[in-house]
């Protein structure tokens, strides 16, 4: 077996999963970490309850997908977890990139979703057989 095939690189999608889960826990605990950069909450303004609920739900979705990437067995299960994560990032790219109230926030959010989705998508290549 070639040396490149014998190295286990599944740590890459697992690390991306842990990072996803960590950010998710942060925005569940403090939705302002998401609402302020996305212009869903003006500086100094109170956080609307409905917005906080939505952010926490988004965080819950991402927490689940991040933990799946971190803990799924190598191979098909890990590739499926990665595909779910990439799908969520694609939805974020479209929804946040077209719906946020501020053009700069739309561009930044779409860029972050595209970059993270691309990183996760590339990690699919090393998810095991």
Sum up the structure in keywords.
mainly alpha; 0% strand
In terms of topology, how is this protein built?
Layout: H1 3-6, H2 11-29, H3 32-35, H4 49-71, H5 76-99, H6 103-123
Helix pairs in contact: 2-4, 4-5, 5-6
Give a verbal description of the structure.
The protein is mostly helical. The chain has one domain. Helices cover about 75% and strands about 0% of the residues. It is built from six helices and no strands. The longest helix has 24 residues. The protein is elongated. The mean pLDDT is about 95.
Shape: elongated
The ordered H/E elements are HHHHHH
* Total individual domains: 1
The main sheet comes to:
none
Quick structural overview:
Helices cover 74% and strands 0% of the residues. It is mostly helical and 129 residues long. Helix 2 runs antiparallel to helix 4, helix 4 packs antiparallel against helix 5 and helix 5 runs antiparallel to helix 6.
